[in-house]
Amino acid sequence: AHLRFSAAEEAFYDVILGETRRAFDEMTSHQRQQQQQQQQDQEQQQQDQQDQEQQQQQQGSQQQQQRPADGPVDLTGDDDPVYQGRDGGHAHATHANGTAAAAGAEKKKHPRTTNRRRRDRGAELVQEAHGELHQLRLACVHPKLTRYWR
Are 34 and 42 within 8 A, CB to CB? Predict the structure, then answer.
């Protein structure tokens, strides 16, 4: 047995199906955008971590090259201008550079938080899609139960 709808009923169901499809499409495209953004953030974090590791390796190899290979090692460091601070003390240059690098790395450790508005929009889209799907289910029971009935 085939169901036959009048033109008005058919238009009514077309409206409900169209709204449901639109809400679902918006929701899925928003979810796709969020996944892409999350993937880009992860790739950026990995790249930052690799850059930091390379920088540390380069600093380590530079320090090894700066060490004298022969002769006694001067542990006081008084004669080496790299290790002398403004007052002639032991303000090591490597420590100053290390704290600046650590501060920069500290900023990069925290990933960008997703925009709250974007998350809220995603929740709104999910609610809208569920609402439209509910209206479609109600229309299957009886058209007068839906909010589209006039």
Answer: no
